[in-house]
Each structure stands twice: as structure tokens, then as C-alpha cells.
Amino acid sequence: MSVLKMIFGGKKERRLREAGWGWSMVAGLAGLVYFFPVLWIIMTAFKSRADALATPPAFLFTPTLDNFVAVFYRVAQTGSGEALSTGMGMFFFNSIFVAASGVFLALIIGTLASYGFSRYPLKGNETYLFVILTTRMLPPIIVIIPIFLMFRMMGLSGSYIGVILLYAAFNLPFSIWMMKSFFDELSPDVEDAARMDGSSERGVFFRICIPQLKAGLAATSVFAVILTWNEFLFALLLTGTETRTVPVAMARTIGGELGVEWGLLAAIITLFLIPVFGVTYLLQNHLLRGVTFGTIKK
Amino acid sequence: MGKFTMTGALAAGIVAGSLAVSAPAFAKDIVLNMAGPDWGPTRFLQEHFNNTYKAKSGNNVKLVFDFIPWGSFYDRVAASLTSGEKKYQMIISDSQWIGTFIEGGHFMKLNKYIDADPELQAIMKDIHPAMIQNYSTYPHKSDNYYGFPQFPDTKVTWFRNDLFCHDGERAAFQAKFKEALPCSYDEWKSADWGTWENVGKFFRRNKGEKLGDGVAANDFYGIAYQAGKVADFSSMQVLPFIWQHGGDIWDESNQPNAQAEGVVNSAEAVKGFQHYLDLLKYAPPVHKTGQMGIFAIQELFMQGKVAAIIDWAGVAPPALDPKVSKYHDKTGFAMTPGLRKADGSISRLDNIGGQPFVLTTWNSEEVTKEALEVVKWWMSPEVQIEFSKNGGEPGLMSVMNMPEYNDFLPWNRAHAELLQHQKDVWHTPEMFEMLTQQQEEFDKAITGQKTAKEAMDSIAKFQQELLIEAGRIK
Amino acid sequence: MDKSVTETAEGLDGLSRPQPGPPVGLQQPIARGKTMQDFWKWMFSPSRRGPMLVAPALIMLFIMNIFPLMWSFGLSFFHYKASSIRPPSFAGLHYYEKVLTDPVVWERLQTTAQIVGMSVLLQLVIGFSLALMFAKKFPLRREILMLVLTPMMLSFVAVGVFFKLFYEPTFGLLSQAYMYFSGEQLTLLATQWGAVWGIVIADAWMWSPFVMLLVLAGLVSVPDYLYEAAEVDRASRWKRFTTVTFPYVKGLLLLALLFRTIETFKIFDVVYLITNGGPGTSTETVAVYVYRMAFQFFKTSQSSALSYILLFIVIVLTNLYLYFVKKRGEEG
Questions:
Q1: Class assignment of domain A88-291?
Q2: What tens digit of pLDDT does each residue of C124-167 get?
Q3: How far apart are CA C262 and CA A242, in angstroms?
Q4: Coil, helix or strand for B364?
């Protein structure tokens, strides 16, 4: 029974049981339980510090936008009162640029590699794949110094390209494993038919395989984006002042003169959540289908 | 393969570009990279430098500050140094790390420059001896100098002056304990741990009970000080108790004869630690979790849950900020209490805080000279006074002795007077391991898993074994 | 719906599961006069195609991951402290011995296993239940699904810092709720069990949506005819579940188990921020311990040895999982 048929077979797709508003309430309750801490963080972004720490907790309060302003501007320490830029705009750009590039690079290299592993298996395919998986098993703290050294030797310290390459490498194992199982599901007969018709290898890859893998690519992208977006340790040590990403800048609100600048941190978290939330929402359809595609083994 | 040639070219371009930026193009352009934590005092340093510094030599000197978040500050500096990155010309260090990085060959010994420069000598003479000893010398108390104070820090008492100076409360306290509720500077100066304990009992109010002019909105507590497992929080308050009771830590200035076993867990040390634990019960319940560190007590105070705390002056500025503290206009500062000795005097031995800044060992002569010029600029009275006015603490005694100094910040008077009592933990490279184990053991006692004696015995044993293995104890 | 793909799919009627392998029928005339194309064709000729396709990935992984891993693996056999400038001297298995005979290490492993076991179990159970819930079509399904997915999108720092606040006895929501009913503050993190639960709940909250997503994908694709057959047999709900639904999603559950176990074993930020390994050392996981050893004590060689022992343990566990999957595949 081909999964492909199930997904794209239209009428043959499993029709999920319908349920009514009662079910929505139950689901909504679960959703609320999961979302409540996030909601609290978002609310804190609009609170003054006193409200954020109020006892009993402040569910009703006068909202303020001060925290969001503080995300981008900071008062000068020298007492002149002028507003200096915190550079957060640049950090946001850096995060978007680095995540997008890293994920994009990982998808290209990973998809090609998984195509290779699937269609042209090498001697020791299983070993290669397992070793690729093992790269995810160690606590990153162990490899941080050699990578740091390596970056220095290669002159990549503090550059965009260094971190992008690193994040691409982080995302490769998951991308390869996911995409390989998608490729495994595709039938080579279609590709052969296309070749018989005179299509080139490249044509086969791009016009036959890829369209069927849109779902898999979407799924891999979302997980990769989430992983890269929030990565902290390597960003802390390997980005420079110009290439710093938001998670590192977020850490600015912790320690220092106050334990945590609650409102400011909540504001940064809220703003930082928007892009990744948007990406996930847009790819939601594909996501569900895509994960199906990759992991069902009949 | 196409992908790789592009990547290679890009990488080569980056390498070329960064080489061009980091190496001075002409002898006149000097860039000083400085690593420091991201908070007010360092932001001030950068801003004031940009606004006012002019190099005497005529060179174009830029100070590029790498502001690292406090929580990750150590990680970043450690990674930079141990990987041989050689990125920074100056670093703001914590006083306790200097041993590790001096022995590692990263921090530069400054004696030859100080000896050759009368201005530097004058500065060194003007720096408080406690700061010299703890921020600058290595081995401890020797004549080798490595650093200058960037931000000196001590612990002071923060208290709610609307409560402590309230007539009704004062009368009740006097009646109950036969001593004055400390309100003025001098009353606090003559307060000892007994007074502190009485305050703890006195100001423990349940929700709804009378408090000052009004009523307690939530459960209210009298006292709190550091009891946190993170970093050095607990140790910074436990060690003062140990010292005041006559105990001691392993004496690094007396290697290799000084022992840990027998010293660290002496009867006095255990007594001191027990005294610390006994007073914890008057603090808010969070102390039971072992998570009542610097910021926990600061927050408790600023949100009105506790009447008095003992905390660093360095984190005091937010207490005066209306946007942050609910009681910004009701906060006073004073000297910390101490142990009343038999002769009636009060022992206030405490652990110093703050950060020195150091120069690194891989700079050229020219860069080092410019860096020392910046040091001289920073340690000049004019800059130190500006620094004080903007929330900092000066390292110069001449500034602290100025009459206006006490008015710059409400805790200055206490801070200046407390400096003479400051000691420090160890500075040797084993410091981290010793501190971590000590913090764990203190935490076990604080959270009720062990007795004070068991904890101290465990610490002494661990340190003895560790230091013997490291060759610091014979 | 992608039209071209639908058309292609219809041409696939009656196909059996495809076997991976090189395509047949590749005899095409090579175009003349275009040397670049010639080059590509030579590059990607069938014999070379496999290696060529995987080469970029393997090279990138080698440089970025394997090289540093081997570097630190090599270091574990030498006396080396990152903080000193002394060159390393050979130590043989000294550090491995030290780590394996250190009772502290076993304590940390135990703590880690406890946290991993509890959290992953919770993630699987809750994730599965959520997936069952979302496997029906109901109004606002898509929006509520997004709500459930948000925990995954937060950074560890955000979760750690805010959950620490939630658990805080004076200011935290949990304690405030407890106080409403009992009048006392809740010092959750004061005991080992409280601290462990605090961490486990934060971790499970963050990652059970991941499990839900994987299982939901499986539930969504169980073919109708199997359910129809079960209905014809008038099988009970439970029987339908165990014979039709569960076998379909068992594979996905095992996959979720694999990924989540590997990741949770490395748990660091959440522990470091919420409890810092306390009270005492009762929640000090092995990743936190490795961090202290490597970065604070500068026992570089020892921490490398410990990490490789960890790696060995995870590899063994992973192999067990893959063995079970193979077995299930043979039975299925």
C-alpha cells in the first residue's frame, strides 16, 4: 500500500472523523495549558516590573510599551540621557540571515546527500548514516574549544560564513535522515519512465523528485529553523559584535545589575517568537503531511 | 565542487578582510579590544572614553569594548583565552580568576611598567590596600602586580528606612529588645548579629498584620542575605561568619605549609557556619531552596517582601530606580553588622567583591604603552569622580576621602568604611574546583541535607586532597 | 494540491514499495561541443554519482563535527589542561580509569538517567494522547494546534528563566496558586524530588509537542479500509486501537523515543538555569558536570574522557533501538 497514494490519492485519503465544538473545548483546554506559560511571557512584555512581579499575580494591569522601546534603545550611562541604539535591529537581521542561510545550505547539501544515500547506496551506507547520527550525541561543550580553534585558524571567527557553515553542519544529520526516508518512499519507476522519455538526470531530480518532496523539505525546514533560531552556545562564542544573534543579545537581560530584566526579556522573546511562529504556521499543512511521508515504514 | 570554490573564495576574502582590520595600518592607529561584562559600570567606561579620551602620544587610540552578558561572561573569556585567540588587549576579570589565567600565561605582570612610571606609582599608592592585595597581587599578597580596580565592590546593608525610622516601630523594638532599632548610620554601625537577629524576629509579620504606617500586603520578613548555590553566592556570606568567629580558609599565602584539614573545619569555622544557618530561618521561604542569591534578595527587597538585606553595593543602583523598585524612596544604606567580640568591638571581616582589569601578555610595546595610558586616564581623579557620580565606585582613596564622595551615592560612606575589613577567597587555579565543591556542600547544609559540621568536614577533606594533588600542600 | 504530482501519482497505480537502487536505462548520447556539460556528465556518471552526491555533506560534517570530535578524543589520552601553556604529555587510559572509578560520575549518570527516563516517558504519553485528540477534524483545529506547538519554538534560556520564576516561592505562579489554597509558600525546589519534577515538567512541556507531531502524522495516515474492516468485524474501540491504530504508530513512537532520548541526555540549559544542579547536587546532570569539568576546572582531558564514555553509552542505547526497529520491520 503506497503511502504516496494515500497522501496524493485525493479521494483515497483517510477521512478524519469529524467532531464538534465539544471536542474543540477539550482541545482548547489542552492548547491553553500548553500556551499559558507563553501567554504569561507575552503579557509580561507589556507589564511594568512591579506588575510582572506582583503578588498576587497580575492578570489585569495597565499595559505599557516601554519594554518594546527598551528592546531597541537604551539610555546612556554617562547621565546625558540620550538614547543609544542597542543594536537589536541588527541582531534580528543577523538571526534571520544566519538561520535562513544555514537551513538553506543544509537543505541543499542534505537533500543531495540523502538522494545519494537512497538511490546510489555506497558500501557501508549504514555505517555512514550511523556516524552522521552520532555527531548529534555529544554535549556541545566538548567540541566548543576545538571548533573555536579551528575557526581561528581558518579566520572564520566572528564572521557570518563561519556560523552559517556550522549551523548547516548541525542540521545535516537530521536533514539527511529525514530526507533519505522520503526518497526511500519514492518509486524509481516514475524516474525511469521520465528518463526513457529523454529527460536528463537533472531534470529527473528537479522535475520529478523534488515536487513530491515539497512536504519533506517543509518538515525538515521547520525543525531545522527552530533548532538554529534558538541556538545559544555556539552563537555566544563564535559570533563577533557585528554578527551576534538574538539569543546572545537576549542574555544581556540576565545578570548585571538586576537578576533578570523581566519586561525587556519578555519583549525580546515575544518579538523573537514571531518569525518562527510565522514560518511554522505557513508550513503547517506541509508539516503534517511531510512527517507522515518520511517515517511510515510499511 | 562548485559550492566549495565559492565557499573557499568567500573564506579567503573574510580572512584577508579581518587581517586588514585587526593589524594597525599605520603606527598611529591603535585599537584596544577590551572584554567586559555588559552592565552600567562598563557601559560608562566605553561611553566616557568615546566622549573624552585623547591620547597623549597623538596616536589614534580606539577602545573597542566587547560587552558580554554577565551570565556568560566567564565562558566567553575562558574560551577566548584558552583557545589562544589572543583577541583582547585588556580584560575585566574577577579577582578570583587571576591565578588561573596568570599561571596560564595570559595576564601580564605590570611591575616593570609601574617601576618605570612615576604616574603609575602614584596611582598604585592611591589605591586602597585591600584592592591592591585582592585585585592585583599574585601570588596573594606578594609584590607582583597584575591589575587595577575597574569596579570595587563590598556588601552593605540595605534597609527600609520608612520602617526602621518609624516612631511606632522603634518604640516597640526598644521595649521588646532593650536596644535601638537601627535607623541612623551610627546606630547601624553599632549593630551586631544579635541586633540583626532581633530585627529578623521583630519584622516577621503575617499578611494583614500592622507594618509601619499601614498593613502587610503579603507575608513580610525581617532579614535576608545570600544563600545561593550559583557561582559564589553562599560562600560570600558564609566566609565572613567563619572569619568573624575566628576560623579561616586555606591560606594560600602560606604554601606549602598551610593545611586545609583542621583549618577549614575547625571548631570556630563550624560555629561560624552554624551561626549563618541559624539566622536563615528569619529569611523568606526561598532560602530553603538554596536559590536565594544576590538577585533573589535584591528582588525581595525591592518588591517589599523583606525589611533589610545584605547585598553588594554593585547591584544597589536599581534600588533607587523608580521604574524598578517599589520602595526607591524608602531605602537607606548602612554598614553590615558583625560579630560582637569579648572586648565589645565588632568584627566585620568580609569578602571583597568587584572586578579588576588586566592587560594581556601578547601585545606589542606600543600597544601596551597606550593601554597603560588608558589605565592612567581611568584611574585619574576626574574620571573616577565622574564614574562615582554615575553609579560606580572609585578605586582611589583620594576620591573616597573627598567630603562630597559620601553624597554621590547613599551607600558610599558605608562602602568606604568597610573596605578596611575586606578579605578574599583563594586565587590559585584550583579555586574553581574548590569553590564549586564548597558551594555544593554549603547548599546541602542550607537545604537541610547535612549538618554544618558534616558539610565543613566534607569541604576540608576535599580541599586537602585536591591541594595535595596540586602540589600546594605538603 | 500539486497538479503535476497528482497526475504522476495516478500513473503509479498498483505499485509495491520501491527498492532503492540506481535507475535503469541510462544510455543517452552525450552532447558535443559543450565541455561544461561533458564535465558534469563525467562527474555525475553513474559510478561516481553516489560518492559525488554525498561528498559535500560528508566533507562538511567531517570538518565541522568529526574533526573536532576526534581532536578532543585524542586529547583524552594526554595530560592536558586548556588553561595552561604546557604542552600535553601522554597519559594512556589514565583519565578513562579516573572517570570510570569516580563515584561522582556514577551519581551524575544516575541523576541524568532519572531525568531522561521521567521526561521522555511523560513526553511519549502526553504526546500520544494529544495526537489522538488532534486526529479528529474539529473547528479551530489548526489554530489550537499552533498553540500547542509554541513551547517548542522558545529558546532554552527563555524556558529556563521563566520556569524558574514560575517555581519561585515568593513571586512564582505555582507558589501563588498553592498559597491561595493553603496559605503557605511552595518551595518546590527545596527537595530533590521537587527539583527533579520541576525540571521534568519544563522539559516535557517543551518537547511533548514534538512527539505529538510525529504520532499525529502516523494517525492521519492510517488507511480507511483497515478501520472499515474492523467495523465490519464489529470490533470494540479498544480492539480497533490495538490492532489497527497502535501498530501503525509504534514505529513513530520509537523514532520519537530515539530522538528525544539522545537530546534529553544532553540536557543542560534547563537544569543550569532552574536549579543549577541543586539542591546540593541532586539534579546535577552529566552534561552540567562535563561543563564544570571542562570550563571551570579546566580538566580538559578528563572531561573529554567522560564525554566519550557518554557517547559510548548513547551509541549502545541507539543500537538497541535500531535493533528493535529492524526486528519489528521483519515481523511487520
A1: mainly alpha
A2: 999 999 988 888 788 888 889 899 999 999 998 899 999 999 99
A3: 34
A4: coil
Dist CA B269 CA B241 (whole Å): 8
The grid cell for B252 is 594560600
Cβ count within 10 A of residue A21: 10
> CB of B202 within 8 A of CB of B176?
yes
B296 and A79 in contact by Cβ < 8 A? no
| Residue contact A109–B69, C-beta within 8 A | no
Convert B132-188 into a string of H (helix), E (strand) and C (coil): HHHHHECCCCCCCECEEEEEEECEEEEEEHHHHCCHHHHHHHHHHHCCCCCCCHHHH
Tell me what pLDDT residue C206 has: 94
Which residues in chain B (65-124) have CB-CB distances under 8 A to chain C? 74-75, 78-79, 81-83, 100-101, 103-105
Q: Are B299 and B236 in contact (CB under 8 A)?
A: no
Cα of B55 to nearest chain A Cα, Å = 20
Question: Which segment of B49-58, B128-137, B328-337, C21-30 scores lowest on mean pLDDT?
Answer: C21-30
CATH number of C95-331: 1.10.3720.10
**pLDDT tops 90 at residue C22:** no
What gap in Å lies between CA A243 and CA A159, rounded to an integer? 7
Q: Which residue from C137, C268, C294 is facing A16, i.e. has the nearest CB?
A: C137
Give the pLDDT score at A104.
93
pLDDT band at B49 (very low <50, low <70, confident <90, very high): very high
Question: What band does C83 get if pLDDT is binned at 50, 70 and 90?
Answer: low
Amino acid in position B450: K
Cell of B296: 533573589
B and C: number of Cβ contacts within 8 A: 99
The arithmetic mean of pLDDT across residues A115-121, rounded, is 85
Dist CA C293 CA C303 (whole Å): 6
CA distance C237 to C242: 9
d(CA C327, CA C267): 30
% of chain C surpassing 90 pLDDT: 31
A121 DSSP assignment: P
C214 contact partners, CB below 8 Å, separation of at least 6: A291, A295, C127, C252, C253, C255, C256
- How many C-alpha atoms does B231 have within 13 Å on its Cβ side? 21
Q: Which SS3 state, helix, strand or coil, does residue B471 take? A: coil
Sequence-separated (6 or more) residues with CB below 8 Å from residue C102: none
Under 8 Å between Cβ of A122 and C54: yes
pLDDT in tens, C152-210: 999 988 999 999 999 999 999 999 999 989 888 999 999 999 999 999 999 999 999 98
Question: How many whole angstroms separate alpha carbon B20 and alpha carbon B17?
Answer: 5
What single-letter DSSP state applies at residue A82? P
Please name the residue ranges forming H helices in chain C. Answer: 3-10, 35-43, 46-61, 67-75, 94-100, 103-134, 141-153, 156-167, 173-182, 192-220, 224-232, 237-240, 246-265, 269-274, 286-291, 300-331
Q: Which residue has the cell 568573624?
A: B244
User: Which three three-digit cell numbers place residue B249?
Assistant: 580558609
**C279 prior amide bond cis, ω within 30:** yes
Tell me the ipTM for this assembly.
0.85
The CATH 1.10.3720.10 domain(s) of chain A lie at 88-291
Query: Which grid cell is B402?
Result: 573627598
Chain A residues in contact with C83 (beta carbon < 8 A)? none
What pTM was estimated for this model as a whole?
0.86
**Domain boundaries defined on chain C:** 3-53, 95-331
Q: What are the beta bridge partners of residue B31?
A: B62
Cross-chain Cβ contact C190/B82 below 8 Å: no
Q: Does B466 touch chain C (CB under 8 A)?
A: no
Query: How far is Cα of residue A25 from the mean position of the Cα atoms in its chain?
Result: 30
Residue type, B380: S
Residues linked to residue B68 through DSSP beta bridges, in sequence order: B37
